[in-house]
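## retry 2 of 3
previous attempt timed out at serialization; input unchanged, resubmitting
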Amino acid sequence: MTATMERSTTHVPSRWTRRIVLVGFVWTGIIVALMLVEPVPEDRVIGLSIAASGLYGWAFWLTRNRWLPRLSGHPLRNAIWLGSINAAVIETLFLSFGWLLGAEGVGAHPNLVIDLLLTMPWYIGMVVIFVRMQHRRRFSLWVVLLLGGLYEIGADGIIGAIPSGSLVSPVYWLLLPLVAFWMFVPVYSSMVLPPALLVGTTPAPSPPAVPAWRDAIRPLWWLVPFFVYLVAAMLVLMGLDIA
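## retry succeeded, writing output
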């Protein structure tokens, strides 16, 4: 990629971040390839969805010279809109592949409307906080991709794993950073990369005095009220007998 991806205000040298991300992409490709040859429909759906999500995010990078000038008039507002809309697109993509291949349990709910009602509060809140954080800190785009994987670790990797009881397994905590994280990076790429590009069109402020890692994890704090909302929403759905 171009020099835009090289800019970084973090303490991690950009060349190492770039190498980590590129190796991670290769690793993700291997994981996806293995999932696509699995006989289990759910595995194929996840593999296809990850690949399609990554291509969707990459398309924004390749076409940035076309859409960036059109949206840069109100960059922060449009960054929030774009990241949130892309989140809905990715969520719909996962469910669509599930319907096509007859897989179950791919999304938060088999009904798309209910699925979006359950998941979009997290996505919108995460994007809003991320855009504000990126505006004041300006992480490099390589770091931004890694942060997307981190945020999905919190949402789907931890919150989403509570009902299954996976969190009590030591093997699960081993697979989370080694496998799941790298699967999550392309899934969240369109939610964080295009907004970061839009934020990059605004004048860069001086880096804040707080450590970079505190800004990086700021969107994860949104998981606390989101979890409360999720529990309340599931109780309502159970009461209506549509959970």
